[in-house]
Design brief:
By secondary structure, the chain is an alpha+beta fold. It has helices at residues 2-14, 25-37, 41-45, 49-72, 74-80, 84-112, 118-157, 237-241, 261-271, 282-295, 307-316, 354-362, 369-386, 389-394, 396-406, 416-428, 450-462, 497-500, and strands at 184-192, 203-212, 218-222, 301-306, 320-324, 328-330, 342-344, 347-352, 407-409, 431-434, 494-496. The chain is elongated and about 100 Å long.
Length: 510
């Protein structure tokens, strides 16, 4: 009687919910794979119904939440991606979810594997479980690395308001709505020409990006680097030293080089250290004040690009695509009449690597500053266009690494979530170029017309690119002027950067 009862109980266990003893090796492997795709299903089939139902419900809930957030809360996710504490929590969350997923797979297989599979069947099952665990662990590790790379980038480039010093940025930040009473955000973009073999830093590129905080429409104002007698606000300590602007009379053309806009970043802090107050970057604060006074704009923050790391960023993005309208020198020295060893030749949709893109932006042999400024703006546009979501996802670690070497700024961490939201508007908005009449404003003279410059900038910001369409382009013949006698050729206040960077070669490729 007792032995019959024990046999009955044993039979009941064999015929239980999982039917593990009667299941084939191939069947258990298939169910193990199913349990990896639908966590909890394997536990249910294996007899752990309550635990399996909980795990399955949790997995479906997390999947649904992820889809919902991805479709309806994308902006909030991007804003969270610039908050170091949230990035740390995200990396921990990825690790925990991956570990739990792996535990569910291993536990499900232990319940599902047949008792009579033999050593071969167990070995095959172990291999499958190992592959499934690797398929989860590897992407999770990449995800954690990308998240931590982003955290490192944010912490290295952007300091908090309390942990950084600036003599010119806004004193307080309205984190909840920083644009509430701010119709425009004015950023100063500086290109530091501090490559190998150069002593000190020259701001070879000075561009003001004035962003409409409601629409994201952006106007770019390129300041010629050879400007002299750059003014300072009357309430600035530097106005006492340079009441007529940063300049000097009676100098030769070569002597003026140390009194131009391009030299202010280095020369003024060396001559008057600490004059503006505590600052992590005195040169940037000096240029912010002066450019703000010259354009009539309150410059809020600066973003400095180290041109020595520019090529690294372009390579991290996989290159940029630009239209080249005239030959661009890769090297050479105009002052010594040393020709370049290589050229970038005209052509539409030219894909440039980092080295080529750097020379496209800075090559000056045989070109004037106006041509270089246009190319620099087009290089910025090329980077914005190249930074599409798929590129950012697949190459993010390299981009983040390059970003740490490339960027310097006084933008505080607290402002980053709002800036991300604004950047999305900029991406879908219109980027236009403010056209400055060099001759009328005397920008190449010793004393430029800064009052006229302020009026021109204000007029441009009050207009829209669509209000002042560019005249239709007509074929040109090299060496011949297309100007019509008696008609004004004054450029419109602004022009769409897409038009300025379009392919319209000059026809001179000799």
């Amino acid at each position: 009687m007792g032995s019959r009862s024990r046999a009955t109980r044993a039979k009941g266990r064999t015929a239980g919910p999982g039917h593990a003893r009667s299941r084939s090796v191939s069947g258990s492997l298939g169910l193990t794979l199913l349990s990896a795709l639908l966590p909890g299903v394997g536990l249910i089939i294996g007899g752990r119904r309550r635990l399996g139902a909980f795990v399955l419900t949790l997995a479906i809930g997390l999947l649904g939440l992820g889809v919902y957030v991805g479709l309806t809360r994308r902006d909030e996710v991007l804003a969270a991606a610039v908050v170091p504490s949230r990035l740390l929590l995200t990396s921990v969350g990825i690790c925990v979810l991956a570990l739990l997923w792996i535990m569910v797979i291993v536990g499900s297989h232990r319940l599902l594997r047949p008792a009579t599979g033999g050593p071969g069947g167990r070995a095959v099952g172990a291999v499958l479980v190992g592959l499934l665990c690797f398929a989860i662990a590897a992407p999770a590790a990449v995800g954690v690395e990308n998240v931590m790379a982003q955290r490192s980038l944010v912490q290295n480039v952007f300091q908090s308001q309390a942990d950084s010093k600036s003599a010119t940025r806004p004193k307080t930040v309205n984190v909840k709505d920083p644009w509430e009473d701010k119709p425009r955000l004015n950023l100063l973009l500086l290109g530091g020409d501090d490559g190998k073999g150069r002593i000190g830093v020259r701001t070879d590129t000075v561009i003001v990006a004035s962003i409409d905080t409601k629409t994201g429409d952006t106007s770019l104002i390129s300041m010629p680097r050879q400007l002299t007698f750059m003014p300072f606000p009357e309430d600035s300590p530097l106005h006492k030293f340079y009441p007529d602007g940063f300049g000097k009379e009676g100098l030769s053309l070569e002597g003026r080089l140390e009194w131009m806009l391009t030299a202010m970043y280095q020369n003024i802090p060396e001559a008057h250290p600490g004059v503006l107050g505590p600052s992590d970057n005195e040169g940037a604060d000096v240029v912010k004040q002066s450019v703000g006074e010259a354009t009539g704009l309150k410059i809020d923050y600066y973003l400095q690009v180290n041109l020595q790391g520019f090529d690294e960023m372009v390579d991290a993005l996989g290159g940029i695509t630009v239209n080249i309208n005239e030959k661009v020198a890769m090297g050479g020295e105009s002052s010594t009449h040393t020709p370049p060893g290589q050229w970038l030749h005209p052509g539409p949709n030219q894909h440039l690597n980092g080295f080529q893109a750097l020379w496209f932006a800075r090559g000056r042999y045989g070109a004037d500053d106006d041509q270089r400024q246009i190319r620099q703006r087009c290089a910025i546009k090329g980077i914005v266009d190249a930074a599409d979501p798929s590129t950012l996802i697949t190459k993010y670690q390299a981009i983040a690494k390059a970003g740490k070497h490339l960027l310097r700024t006084d933008i505080p961490q607290e402002l980053l979530p709002a800036l991300v939201q604004l950047a999305l508007k900029v991406k879908s908005g219109t980027v236009s170029n403010v056209n400055l009449d060099v001759s009328k404003l005397k920008l190449k003279y010793l004393h430029p017309d800064y009052e006229g410059l302020r009026e021109a900038v204000q007029k441009a910001l009050d207009s829209k690119p669509s209000d002042t369409p560019a005249p239709p382009k007509t074929p040109t013949t090299p060496g011949k002027s297309t100007a019509t006698p008696g008609k004004s050729t004054t450029p419109p206040p602004t022009s769409d950067l897409n038009d300025a960077c379009a392919y319209h070669p000059s026809g001179d490729d000799s």
